[in-house]
Protein 1
Amino acid sequence: MLTHTTSTALFGMLMLLLLCLHYFIFPLHEFIFIFPVLGYFVLVAWGSSQINSNYHLTVLCQSKDVTSKHIALSFDDGPHETVTPLVLDWLKKHEISATFFCIGKNIEGKEALLQRMHSEGHIIANHSYSHSYFFDFFGSSKIKNELSRTNEQVEKLLGSKPALFRPPYGVTTPSIAQAVEQLKLTCVGWNVRSMDGVSKNQEKIIERVCAKIQPGAILLFHDTYEQVIPVLDATFQHCRANGFKIVSLEKLVKIKPYV
Ligand SMILES: [Zn+2]
């Protein structure tokens, strides 16, 4: 598995070798230096932007057991004042346990919603405190503060400290990897992204989600857009028609959701 540490070491050795050749054996054309630098930056950009690359850290994106037709639902960016209760009602109606990756600042003023999630058997996980547009540029101590702040909020309200973290925007960096390791959290991604926060075309969202459902899948939705309910209805119908069972993330990937 190609990781950031390995590729950085290989890149460093290659550059050193080229410099030695250039200065001690025969002069090289400057283009010879540009290609490895470009290649390295493309690799880092790819590894950082692909949640399932395991480039900076290990991220759970699906179950290893692909023999059972089990999948899990996850919701990001809440709690939301109006949409989260609709999602909770829908989950209750269908007796499904889901995972909510909550933003710390969104919990403030909506503590009762968090308590409802917990009492109805859902997992509450960490999705940073600010979900800042600049989160991926933060240093590890600032990221650590964000994750600790959200975990403390949840622990104060529910008595349980989340062990699961999903990076905002699905981007990973060396600083995120360091903070996650220091706080002993487990990073959780997805392998079916609904794009419900990006696309307004409900049919396309449904088509996309249903086409990608496979045994062991972790589905990503947002409990911040009302259109999630008809998408959930269609997903549920598809699962029922094709023999898929929706289980909790805890059961799907066999992890402890709280420290
Ligand atoms: Zn998010």
Note: The radius of gyration is 21 Å.
Protein 2
Amino acid sequence: MIIPPVRYLRPGTLAEAVELLATVDGAAVLAGGQTLLNALKLDLVQPTALVDVHRLDELRGIDVTADGTLVIGAATTYAAIAASPLARETHPSVAEMAAGLVDRQVRNRGTIGGNCCLNDPTNNFPPLLTALGAGFHTTGASGPEGWRSVPASMFFTGGLSTALRPGEVLTSVRIPPLPSGSRVVHRHLQVGADSWAMARAVVRLDVTDGTVTGARIVLGAVPGSPLRLTAVEEALTGRPLDASLVETAAAAFDQEDVVTVGDVHSSAEYRLEMAKVQLRRALRDAVEGSTT
Ligand SMILES: Cc1cc2nc3c(=O)[nH]c(=O)nc-3n(C[C@H](O)[C@H](O)[C@H](O)COP(=O)(O)OP(=O)(O)OC[C@H]3O[C@@H](n4cnc5c(N)ncnc54)[C@H](O)[C@@H]3O)c2cc1C
């Protein structure tokens, strides 16, 4: 399919990008283009202009602040995250997810910002970043300060929707340090070896002296994803870290309101069962201390 005529604009700075988005009617941010260009070809979106932020230095790079927060520029590619010693040291789950994402071509072009701003229910990063309690820094149309920071719990507002305002640019994703003793495990079932997830679960357990002191349990690949399972989280908190957690979580899962949908890949019922299986596996591996 051929992309319909659209203006291509490449600002030299973030300020220029914000200005273009504010002044050019119907302009949209272009990052890695791995989803947006396909959406254009399929006529799912009709921007009049694309403002390319992929090469803006201000949006690229990885750093760690004095308090241990991992700061990833929104236009940083999955490949750069996977190769980053800082990401591997502070949040190995983030680096591993980036390294395992789809194929080399998508990893070399796709960005963490694009992944989050799209918030496709099947995307990898939104559930993980929700479990990690990430913050999202934005600029342009961000209020009187000129920027704002939105927690993951408020940034992801539903499938394919976020708290971003028209003209706003995501500048960075900020992931606070985990308490020592935390375990983060991600498990998913894919349609094919390098394709979209049918079911996804992320388990984060904060553990002190053999007791679970906090839990974040998040599902992906469901319509409202990332979806936190608060009944499961409550059931796990205060329990000893042992294999019984898997059954505790399975029992609490039934109190959750998890809606799944069927499609060409699976029925809604099968997807729900697979979500439970991914949760069990992630929890079992977290208990056993296997995080990869
Ligand atoms: C074959 C294939 C398989 C894939 N499989 C998976 C998969 O299994 N898991 C997965 O997670 N992803 C998958 N993807 C999607 C891929 O990860 C995309 O890279 C990602 O969804 C979008 O990132 P991007 O940088 O390419 O953004 P783009 O496609 O350029 O943009 C996506 C959206 O985000 C907006 N946007 C981007 N950056 C910003 C910003 N800084 N501020 C404001 N808005 C912004 C754009 O306007 C657009 O609406 C796959 C893609 C392909 C082509």
Note: The chain has a mean pLDDT of 95.
Protein 3
Amino acid sequence: MKCEACRQNAIISSSNGTFCVDHFKSNFEKITLSTIKKYKLINDGETIAVANSGGKDSLSLLYIIAKYFKKKNSIISITIDEGIKGYRDKTIETMKTYCDAWGVTYKIYSYGDFAGATMDAITKLKPGIPCGTCGVLRRHMLNFSAAENRADKMATAHNMDDEAENVMMNLFQNDFEKLIRLGPISGISQYKGFVPRIKPFMFISEKETMLFSMVNGINALHTPCPYAGLGFRGVISRKIKELESEMPGSKRYMLDLMMELKREYSDSYVENPRSQLVNCAACGAPASEEICEACNVKMQIKRLKPN
Ligand code: SF4
Ligand SMILES: [Zn+2]
Ligand SMILES: [Zn+2]
């Protein structure tokens, strides 16, 4: 297998090309920067919050954003500490090491501070698959932390695999409105307190982001969360991997279809949204009900906790 740019030995072949180490690195950065440029994800002078779990994907994203945007933008790393022992505590140490090395300010927000319980404690209070509750809290805290730090955008390291999962999950849940809100920049920016989310890695696969971190010497933990693989997302993730191995390119086709639907229908949904957002009566965050999902979770935990 030879690099398509220089004919040296290649280390990867994907829908983005077949490359040696050096050309893989430069092509990876080129795709990321062209996604940012094409969809106007980062504009000069904006404050960009980077969601940084301390894992390979988010550190690779922070590395590129710090390398190319630090001069004209203010960059802040935000870590959400779910409170998962043996997992997040380790990635937080990695996150601190790299933020210090790259001169990026970091802040940590924990479920313990917001909801009064760590994710490990919540799994004991609420038996069953924890990912739904965890996702509600994480989305809320990412938006809250970005708004608190006056960020214009919140960058996440969602890659092609993650986005293909989102597309399929919304298809199977028959949620067209959520489906067309996906994409490289998502969310409803006209609502007060809402910080748009950007996904510069959306057109790069999980395999490529992992390789990029390795070839750049980013020594991040590759162990998944102990609760990963449970629930609906776990099922969808496995099915997409099977599909991609039998029909290479399927993930990319799912994204292309979603982008096409978005182009066609998002304007009419912005003008006539099915669900109007309000501001949560408890915390002020954008919500579809009087009390947002995260505040509901918080109240539920309070009720379940022994006195
Ligand atoms: S796998 Fe589930 S519990 Fe673990 S961090 Fe992700 S959403 Fe939270
Ligand atoms: Zn090459
Ligand atoms: Zn709320």
Note: The beta strands are 12-14, 17-19, 47-51, 74-81, 105-110, 153-155, 185-186, 197-198, 278-279, 286-287.
